[in-house]
Each structure stands twice: as C-alpha cells, then as structure tokens.
Amino acid sequence: MKSKWYELKEGAVKLRKKGLSLGKIESRLGVPKSTLSGWFKDVELSEKQKKKLYNDWKNALVRARIKAVAWHNKQKEQRLLEAKKQAIETLGKINIDNKNIIELALALLYLGEGAKNNPETALGSSNPLILKFFLSIIKNVYGIENDKIKCELGLRADQDPWKIKKFWAKSLNLPIENFHRINVDKRTIGSKTYPHYKGVCHIRCGNSAVQRKLIYLANSFCEKIIENNQGRIA
Questions:
Q1: Is residue 81 domain-resident?
Q2: Strands of 150-156's sheet in order across
Q3: What is the pLDDT, as a whole number, of residue 110?
Q4: The pTM is what?
Q5: Distances, alpha carbon 77 to alpha carbons 63, 64, 66, 74, 131, in Å
Q6: Is 146 part of any domain?
Q7: Considering the domain boundaries, does residue 171 fall inside one?
Q8: pLDDT per residue over 113-132, tens digit each?
Q9: Phi and psi, residue 114, nearest 5°
Q10: Is 55 exposed, middle or buried (0-12, 13-18, 19+ CB in 10 A)?
Q11: Would you give the distance in Å from CA 212 to the centre of its chain?
C-alpha cells in the first residue's frame, strides 16, 4: 500500500538534491521526517549539497541558541520584576521610622559583616550602599559625628589611591581627610582590575558600646527566632 504522501515523493527528492534539510522539506510539503528519511536513503548528495546542509544546520543552531538566550533573558526579567514587586510589598508593611527596626537591621548586617575581634564599631565592604546604610544609622541613631569616623582602603596593586580615595569620599559624603590608611594587596601585582571595582572601604568609629549592643541584639534575635520556630514545629 502506497503512502498517502507518495505523490509528493518526487518533489521531495528534488528538494533534497537541492540541499534542503529534512526539517525544511517537512515544513514545505507536510511530509513527516520519518517518511522522508526512508525516501532519501538512496539519494546521493554532492559535496556542495552536503556543505549546504551542514551550513544550514550550523546557522539553524545559532538561531536556536539566540532564541533560547532571548527566552531565558525574558524569563529572568519577569522573575526579577516579580521579586522586586514582592520586596516592595513587604517593605510597605514595615515601619522604617521605627528606631528598633532600624537598629535590628543594622545589628543583623553587623553580625555578618562587622568587626567583632577588636573593641570598636567597624565595618568594611566594597558596596557603597552597605556603607552608606551603616553610616546613616550610626550617625542618626547613635549620634556619631564625622570627626569620630575614620576610613581605611584596601586596594589592588594597579589602582590609583588618590582617585579611589576621592571616589569613596564622594560616595559616602565624608571629608577626604577621614581617609587615613591605604593597604595595597601585593598579591595582585600584574593582574588587571575590573573598572567597576573600587576596592574595600573600612569604616571605623571606635565606639565599643555600639559594637557590643549590635552583636548582642543580633545574636539574641536569631536565638529567639530559632526558639519560636522550634516551638511551633514541636
């Protein structure tokens, strides 16, 4: 019994001999690839035709990858927008004028990033936002003035100390005189630094009382949350 597509076989073979792929022929004629494969078993292709098929396959692969990247980027963008929306909704339920909430937020940050071995309140980061947050609270909540704040920079070997010092002074709205020490990592000699990286800035205000309160507050809060959650599970 002849296939219902048999009358298309001659045209399909001609298209194959022109160097068209199974996918393109299937798209044009509506004949399944499985049927086409059987028809083309004895079709001999020239080197030119084989090269055309290979190039078509390569180009199709590139197009498919471009589409896949575009799709993944779109999906990622949607996930980021959803995360932002959820974050804004949560933030809207928090009273950011509440001093206790502000102190708790700083305490948790300090528990992860702040200095704990020396008796002083100090925090270092390469992220200006984190340091501006830290400065905002120690100034407005604890009343620490600029003259009590000292900054140190940790730089890579190919960075310009004066240029980086000006960057941090401007970013943190601090007098450039507050930047006292610069430490250069000699291990980075000979390697290039990314333009966006401005080193690590360490802020010190020498107030051990603030440090003690922040660490105790953060630890107590974490322990209380763990205890409450364990009680719910039990």
A1: no
A2: 122-125, 200-204, 150-156, 179-185
A3: 97
A4: 0.72
A5: 21, 20, 16, 5, 28
A6: yes
A7: yes
A8: 999 988 999 999 999 999 99
A9: -80, 165
A10: exposed
A11: 33
The Cα 14–Cα 128 span in angstroms is 66
CA distance 84 to 142: 31
Give the Cα-Cα-Cα angle 110, 113, 116 (nearest 5 degrees): 70
Count of domains forming the chain: 1
User: What is the C-alpha to C-alpha distance for residues 215 and 8, in angstroms, rounded to an integer?
Assistant: 80
Cβ 85 vs Cβ 176: under 8 Å: no
| DSSP helix/strand/coil, 228 | helix
Tokens of 125: 């980061």
Task: Give me 12's structure tokens.
Answer: 């399909």
Those residues of the chain that have pLDDT short of 50 are none
- Per the structure, the complete domain to which residue 170 belongs is given by 99-233
Contacts of 10 (CB under 8 A, 6+ apart): none
Give domain status of residue 68, yes or no. no
Q: Which two tokens stand for residue 90?
A: 């949560």
Cα–Cα distance, 140 to 120 (Å, whole number): 18
The H or E element spanning position 151 is strand 150-156
User: Is residue 173 helix, strand or coil?
Assistant: coil
Q: Both tokens of residue 171? A: 């970013």
Distance, in Å, from the CA atom of 4 to the CA atom of 32, rounded to the nearest integer, reads 11
pLDDT at 233: 60
Identify any residues that bridge with 150 across adjacent strands, giving them in sequence order.
204
Looking at the DSSP bridge assignments, the partners of residue 122 are: 204
Helix axes 208-233, 99-113, angle to 10 degrees: 100
Which two three-digit tokens encode residue 222?
A: 């974490």
**pLDDT of amino acid 2:** 59
